[in-house]
Amino acid sequence: MKSASKAIEEYRIEKEPYYLSSSNEAEVFSQAYSNQLPMLLKGPTGCGKTRFVEYMAWKLERPLVIVACHDDLTAGDLVGRYLIQGSDTVWMDGPLTRAVRAGALCYLDEIVEARKDTTVVIHPLVDDRRILPIEKRGEILTAPPEFMLIISYNPGYQSIMKDLKPSTRQRFVSLEFKYLEEGAETAIVAQESGVDQELSRRLVKLGHMTRNLKERGLDEGASTRLLIHAGKLIQSGIDSREACRAAITSTLTDDEEMQIAMSEMISSLF
């Protein structure tokens, strides 16, 4: 079995992730880290929140533990639980506990998807105490200075049932992310997918056109991530229109009329 220190090293990012800054978010994050403040990131799907966290983990030279939150995520999933191995019962740390022990960055992606009784477990970690009680073991972990908790959510998917309580929100420093302006987004799509600048520009133009359909038939327009997916398909030899239909149109909607409208957009650009 791997030692805890060796296991956490697998979460270290060795190669610099490609990231284009839109403002002073890196400086704000760095100062929050220096002051042992937790961070809340909010913004639409696929706008670069996760990439930003990866970039900052690389820059700060800290391991990064990422947890994709979901409806069935329990406190035990985050903190840990006892497991039966053969004739023995052994304790297995959850991802949050591993991050605290190692002084890593822990990123809880789409925190509002988790059950509300699960998010309460992070409260002692993100106030002045910076502790993680492990009730099943009768243990209290004190987070080292290097530990940082980051959470994110998409404000566009908020509802009465899925929202952050003020008691949780007000423990964090917040950064708001939006889709980048056209030039920067074009550079990212070209870099990440391998297509040339002109093709990337047209993909970004298509993305902006779909975003204008938000709340007019689409829940959300094409993210930068989807544009990169389309670019990768095109770069691999798939016809541009077919790639856009597969990566963007069919992904965003099942509505036949909306798909026809989006196909017309694609035809106007490719």
Provide the domain count: 2
CATH superfamily of the largest domain: P-loop containing nucleotide triphosphate hydrolases
Write down the overall mean pLDDT: 92
Class inferred from helices and paired strands: alpha/beta
Largest sheet: 5 strands, parallel
Molecular shape: elongated
User: Span between N and C termini?
Assistant: 53 Å
Under CATH, the topology of the largest domain can be stated as Rossmann fold
Helix share bin: 40-55%
- Unreliable stretches (pLDDT < 50, length at least 5) are none
Q: Report the CATH architecture of the largest domain.
A: 3-Layer(aba) Sandwich
Count of alpha and pi helical runs: 12
- Give the strand order of the largest sheet, numbering strands 1, 2, ... along the chain: 2-5-8-1-9
Counting copies of identical and different chains, the oligomeric state is: single chain
SS elements, strand count: 9
Rg over C-alpha atoms, rounded to the nearest angstrom: 21 Å
Strand share of the residues?
15-25%
Characterization of the model:
This protein is an alpha/beta fold. It has two domains: 4-176, 3-Layer(aba) Sandwich (Rossmann fold), CATH 3.40.50; 182-269. It has twelve helices and nine strands. It has helices spanning 4-9, 25-34, 49-60, 75-79, 95-102, 116-119, 166-169, 182-193, 197-211, 224-235, 240-252, 256-269, and strands spanning 39-42, 64-68, 80-85, 88-93, 105-109, 131-134, 139-142, 148-153, 173-176.
